[in-house]
């Protein structure tokens, strides 16, 4: 699903209005019917709604919803916030229709004293501002929003929490934006819903289809998209009847150090559970018995050091290389990584301490071979690129670096963002907070290495790897719950995840 900029939404509307064709007021009615259906499915008729309405089409949606909820016998009170005397045409028409219906109370708010008392159990519908927000909230609206946020009520925002911008909120104070429990967005989510910093405003978000014209959605460009299972399926390779282990590649995983052999075990197991033909795991000498016992399917390459990574085997023997989980950041490891980056002409994935080494030795960024995959979490990202002004700035930095260096970057977390050499950004929907546990990232590195060795392009290895990793985590959370989930459980559910996606 493409994610469009707020500025593109009016163009998509206009195209739909002209080419479906449908009157603008009827498109608003369609959107409001979807909202109404959503609410009717979830709430009983004794529930009362307080709808806060602004001057634009977001307010128009709120007014149409008020009429539809009244028709369905819900108790509705409408509060029209006096920001300007002029209402948008469709907002005005819906106000007139509501007045004619004459079954909901309509009050005007021109100062805080006009606000109602919010009794517990009330549901507030936020229809103040939507994608037409042009500046941060100030004065009266800001205070109304603060009062709503402080009240013990459930808040449902139409399209986007009022005050929040669809993209960049770096100069916005989130305390002045509505903090919704649910956000019901039309057709597509907004980019800002996918950033962790905005979660307190957005709450749980859902998209409601309103039949925008498919031709304009297809044609209009956007660098952002939210991937899904069907898209990932379209990228998968099939295993051939007459194939042998050589067909699926030989991977080299450089991982582990004294006290961190678990990282090597987790990444090796995940790699083997994701279809690779052969795996060699390069580890410091002391890890030999540990790895041979824990992962008998992997061959072992031994470092001359007992405790850290200081050298690597001949790269010619391998189809892909993964380096980083648990390698530590010692002097000799830095030198060995430098050499590897300069020499390596094989597909490469860098994680954890490999990224931290580069973060501490910025000149190494220049030596990243084209097509390399980097998998930082936010902290590792900031070690690489410095502090960011906010999530939008961070995303821009990620996209720009991918483009400039022709690398694939995987910024991990909820809605992991994957950027490619064209500056495109793909968000992943799978995964859950149970995966915020030690070793989850090592599992991802193993999966991606496996896919690279099997001949997937860097972008496809990252997209498929991140999706399947999250899916296995979701299946594990279904079985054990999020709290008890550990990284090994993600590996245990890789077979089910692969089966599901290959079926
Ligand atoms: N395809 C879809 O998705 C569909 C979308 N639909 C709905 O349309 C919504 C977008 O509607 P919209 O463009 O009329 O903008 P909206 O946000 O209601 O308000 C703009 C008004 O607010 C004003 N204003 C702005 N910022 C302000 C501030 N800080 N403080 C004070 N005032 C401020 C601004 O004034 P101006 O900037 O011009 O000075 C203008 O008057 C969208 O979110 C969805 O709900 C559906 O109906 C149909 C299909
Ligand atoms: N709340 C969450 N929702 C979805 N995925 C998550 C969440 N928290 C963590 N993850 C996933 O778990 C993994 C954690 O990786 P990382 O932080 O590197 O862990 P570690 O360093 O312990 O191995 C990432 O792939 C990340 O996307
Ligand atoms: K809103």
TrEMBL record:
SUPFAM superfamilies: Ribokinase-like, YjeF N-terminal domain-like. InterPro entries: Carbohydrate_kinase_pred_CS (IPR017953), CARKD (IPR000631), Nnr (IPR030677), Ribokinase-like (IPR029056), YjeF_N_dom (IPR004443), YjeF_N_dom_sf (IPR036652). Binds 1 potassium ion per subunit. PANTHER family: ATP-DEPENDENT (S)-NAD(P)H-HYDRATE DEHYDRATASE, ATP-DEPENDENT (S)-NAD(P)H-HYDRATE DEHYDRATASE FAMILY MEMBER. (6S)-NADPHX binds at residues 57-61, 130-136, 159, 263, 326, 377, 442. Belongs to the NnrD/CARKD family. Residues 228-501 form the YjeF C-terminal domain. One of its GO terms (biological process) is metabolite repair. Homotetramer. Its cofactor is K(+); Mg(2+). Bifunctional enzyme that catalyzes the epimerization of the S- and R-forms of NAD(P)HX and the dehydration of the S-form of NAD(P)HX at the expense of ADP, which is converted to AMP. This allows the repair of both epimers of NAD(P)HX, a damaged form of NAD(P)H that is a result of enzymatic or heat-dependent hydration. Catalyzes the dehydration of the S-form of NAD(P)HX at the expense of ADP, which is converted to AMP. Together with NAD(P)HX epimerase, which catalyzes the epimerization of the S- and R-forms, the enzyme allows the repair of both epimers of NAD(P)HX, a damaged form of NAD(P)H that is a result of enzymatic or heat-dependent hydration. AMP binds at residues 412-416, 441. It holds the Pfam family Carb_kinase. CDD domains: YXKO-related. Its EC number is 4.2.1.136, 5.1.99.6. K(+) binds at residues 58, 126, 162. It catalyses: (6S)-NADPHX + ADP = AMP + phosphate + NADPH + H(+); (6R)-NADPHX = (6S)-NADPHX; (6S)-NADHX + ADP = AMP + phosphate + NADH + H(+); (6R)-NADHX = (6S)-NADHX. Residues 9-218 form the YjeF N-terminal domain. This is Bifunctional NAD(P)H-hydrate repair enzyme. The gene is nnrE.
């Amino acid at each position: 699903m493409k994610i469009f900029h707020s500025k593109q939404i009016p163009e998509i509307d206009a195209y739909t209005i002209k080419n479906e064709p449908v009157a603008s007021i009827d498109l608003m009615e369609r959107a409001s019917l979807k909202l109404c259906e959503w609410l009717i499915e979830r709430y009983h008729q004794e529930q009362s709604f307080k709808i806060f309405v602004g001057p634009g089409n977001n307010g128009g949606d709120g007014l149409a919803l008020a009429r539809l909820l009244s028709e369905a016998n819900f108790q509705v009170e409408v509060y029209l916030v006096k920001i300007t005397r002029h209402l948008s045409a469709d907002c005005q028409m819906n106000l007139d229709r509501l007045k004619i219906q004459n079954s909901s109370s309509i009050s005007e708010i021109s100062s805080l004293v006009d606000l109602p008392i919010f009794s517990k159990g009330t549901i507030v519908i936020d229809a103040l501002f939507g994608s037409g927000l042009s500046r941060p909230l100030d004065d009266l609206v800001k205070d109304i929003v603060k009062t709503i946020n402080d009240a013990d009520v459930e808040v449902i925002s139409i399209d986007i929490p009022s005050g929040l911008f669809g993209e960049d909120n770096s100069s916005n104070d989130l305390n002045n934006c509505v903090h919704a429990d649910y956000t019901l967005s039309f057709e597509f989510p907004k980019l800002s819903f996918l950033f962790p910093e905005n979660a307190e405003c957005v709450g749980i978000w859902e998209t409601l289809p309103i039949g925008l014209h498919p031709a304009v959605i297809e044609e209009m460009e956007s660098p952002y998209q939210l991937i899904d299972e069907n898209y990932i399926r379209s990228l998968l390779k099939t295993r051939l009847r007459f194939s042998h282990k050589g067909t699926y590649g030989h991977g080299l995983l450089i991982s582990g150090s004294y006290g961190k052999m678990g990282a090597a075990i987790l990444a090796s197991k995940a790699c083997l559970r994701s279809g690779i033909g052969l795996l060699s795991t390069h580890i410091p000498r002391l890890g030999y018995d540990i790895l041979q016992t824990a992962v008998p399917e992997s061959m072992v390459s031994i470092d001359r050091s007992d405790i850290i990574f200081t050298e690597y085997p001949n790269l010619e023997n391998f189809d892909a290389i993964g380096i980083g989980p648990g390698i530590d950041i010692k002097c000799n490891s830095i030198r060995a990584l430098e050499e590897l980056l300069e020499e390596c002409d094989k597909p490469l994935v860098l994680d954890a301490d490999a990224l931290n080494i580069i973060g501490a030795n910025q000149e190494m960024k220049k030596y990243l071979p084209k097509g390399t995959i980097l998998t930082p979490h936010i902290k590792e990202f900031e070690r690489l690129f410095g502090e960011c002004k906010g999530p939008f700035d961070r995303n821009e930095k990620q996209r720009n670096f991918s483009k400039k260096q022709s690398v694939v970057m995987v910024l991990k977390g909820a809605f992991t963002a994957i950027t490619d050499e064209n500056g495109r950004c793909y968000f992943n929907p799978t995964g859950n907070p149970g995966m915020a546990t030690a070793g989850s990232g090592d599992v991802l590195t193993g999966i991606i290495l496996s896919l690279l060795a099997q001949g997937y392009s860097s972008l496809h290895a990252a997209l498929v790897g991140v999706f399947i990793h999250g899916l296995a985590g979701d299946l594990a959370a279904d079985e054990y719950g999020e709290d008890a989930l550990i990284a090994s459980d993600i590996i245990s559910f890789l077979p089910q995840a692969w089966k599901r996606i290959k079926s």
